Amino acid sequence: MNAKTVEPVLQVESVNAIRGNSTVVRDISFTVNPGEVLGLLGANGAGKTTIVDAISGFARKECGTVRLLGQDISRLSPFRTAHLGLLQVSQDRELFGALSVEDNLMLGEQALTKRRPGRPDGLERVFTLFPRLKDRRNQRANSLSGGEQQMLAIGRALIGDPVLLVLDEPTSGLAPVLVKEVAEFLALMRGDGLSILLVEQNIDVALELCDRFMVVRNGETVFEGVRDDFGKDPVAALGALYV
Ligand SMILES: Nc1ncnc2c1ncn2[C@@H]1O[C@H](COP(=O)(O)OP(=O)(O)OP(=O)(O)O)[C@@H](O)[C@H]1O
């Protein structure tokens, strides 16, 4: 495939983003190509969430451009970017605890229905990918394990048929056994050819899943590259970029 002919799913150009009254992210530029998993990495407070929030419209941009499949989405609200297929799963998952697994998933389908009316059943596609959600379809979301809740939050985004899936630290706060489980279902999604922007602090998970890596520190990009760029000890090389 000729790389020059492939239109990126996401193009971010020279974005500065604001939290409160401060510019906490400066001059961020990157692309996500179709079927690629781009890892956005960095230590606590480096600016990862602000970057993805600026892309999806949750955080204010001071300047810069964001394009989704070539369309300028820089000034759109999160609601509009979601309807164009940029679906973000936030760190706190934002599930409706008192609602069933199935009802939580059906809420995700609303984004799809507005964008592409008439598309057939997404629920079954999610249940095929995550049979455990099918087993628990009538259970309340707040009765699920942490890993299952993450699976549900991602399933709800998948049901909206994302052009780009943005995952903000899906393994955050999970016990090691659940981190492994989440990594396994992310690998399944990767195999499905989804385009994913993955915010991740866990170096092992990132190295396992990402095609390319971008590391930020103090709101600026300090590294962009592929696994081979890390040399013989990628865990150490990547860890050194965090500090
Ligand atoms: N509402 C706010 N007002 C001012 N500064 C903020 C606000 N929210 C976040 N910040 C600051 O912005 C910077 C970037 O935070 P951000 O949450 O994007 O980092 P992060 O890399 O996602 O961190 P974490 O991994 O802890 O979620 C931090 O220095 C943080 O203190």
UniProtKB/TrEMBL annotation:
The keyword ATP-binding applies. GO terms for molecular function: ATP binding. It holds the Pfam family ABC_tran. Residues 10-243 form the ABC transporter domain. Keywords: Amino-acid transport, ATP-binding, Nucleotide-binding, Transport. It comes from the Bacteria. CDD domains: ABC_TM1139_LivF_branched. InterPro entries: AAA+_ATPase, ABC_transporter-like_ATP-bd, ABC_transporter-like_CS, BCAA_Transport_ATP-bd_LivF, P-loop_NTPase. Belongs to the ABC transporter superfamily. This is ABC transporter ATP-binding protein. It comes from Leifsonella bigeumensis.
